[in-house]
Amino acid sequence: MVSDFSAGNYRFIPSVFQYSAGAAADDGYEIERVRFDRPVLLAEGFALAAKYIQEAGRPLTAFCACELRSPAAFSEEGFRAFNLHYVKTLSEWGIFDGTNNPVARSNVCPEIDPPSEPSFYAFSFTRPTTSKSPSFVIAGGAEAREGSGTYVERTVRYRDLSPEGLREKVRFTTTSQMENRMAAFGFGWKDTTGVQAYSVHDFHHALVDELVRRGALRSGLTWHFARPPVVDLEYEMDCRRVMREMVI
Predict the structure, then answer these.
(1) How many domains does the chain have?
(2) CA-based, 20 to 30 A from 39: which of 105, 119, 231, 246?
(3) Cβ distance 133 to 24 under 8 Å?
(4) If 0-12 CB within 10 Å is exposed, 13-18 middle and 19+ buried, where does residue 159 land?
(5) What is the CATH number of the domain that holds 71?
């Protein structure tokens, strides 16, 4: 389930052409996460990320994860069109080979004060370290099962916003998305340093049983009032173990 991306000094969980399900630094390397003080438009974000990575003495192939913000949820066709545009830069950087994409990603849509165009919120890259502590970033995952078929067919409790429907969405995302992806690298909730959730719905009733009791909130929870990137998805999460974080 895990592949090597030696040019970037990390390994990844293959998923779909637009992103991987997660990235973990190789031995002798760590992941650094860089968040923008304010979101910047996609092209500018790529340019600033390239400058930061190169000034750190790293190749552009060290780029291993990003967190994006979009104006509103996409249709399935619109989401594919956006992704085909997004991966062009990764191809130019020698990361995306046309089939495999090692970069983990979250892309969500703020409900209040959204950006006018798709924008960067944060990015991550690998750098050498003497630390023995591992680091990883798990890509954003929502309540849609992996595999073929439309989102309508794959979405857990499709359009069900009842308390139990939301609980099941949270449970699925926590276990089948986050836990399974971490387990592919040999990690679990006890290893995380950051967990983020994205929803415009009140999921407080599911917190204790579906997150706290599972150990998911050992470092707390950052809740973003935002929607997943595809229409009718309602809840998304991502998580990470990153010791070095910067805001620029």
Answers:
(1) 1
(2) 231
(3) no
(4) exposed
(5) 3.30.1330.40
Give DSSP secondary structure letters for 1-60: --EEEGGGTEEE---BTTBBSEEEEPTTEEEEEEEEEEEEEHHHHHHHHHHHHHHTT--G
DSSP β-bridge partners for residue 124: 33, 65
Q: Does residue 151 carry a pLDDT above 90?
A: no
Euclidean distance between CA atoms 151 and 77, whole angstroms: 11
Q: Are 194 and 164 in contact (CB under 8 A)?
A: no
How many Å apart are CA 171 and CA 159, to the nearest integer? 16
Contact 102, 12 (CB under 8 A): yes
Return d(Cα 247, Cα 245) in angstroms, integer: 7
Query: Residue 191 forms beta bridges with which residues?
Result: none
Tokens 């990153």 belong to residue = 242
Any residues with CB less than 8 A from the CB of 19 and at least 6 apart, and which? 101, 103, 104, 105, 139
10 Å CB burial of residue 215 (0-12, 13-18, 19+) is exposed
Task: Give me the amino acid identity at 232.
Answer: D
Yes or no: say if 26 and 9 are a contact pair by the CB < 8 Å rule.
yes
Instruction: Compute the CA torsion angle 187, 190, 192, 194 (nearest 10 deg).
Output: 150
Containing structural domain, residue 28? 3-247
pLDDT band at 146 (very low <50, low <70, confident <90, very high): confident
Rounded CA Rg of the chain: 17
Report the alpha-carbon distance of residue 103 to residue 66 in Å, rounded: 7
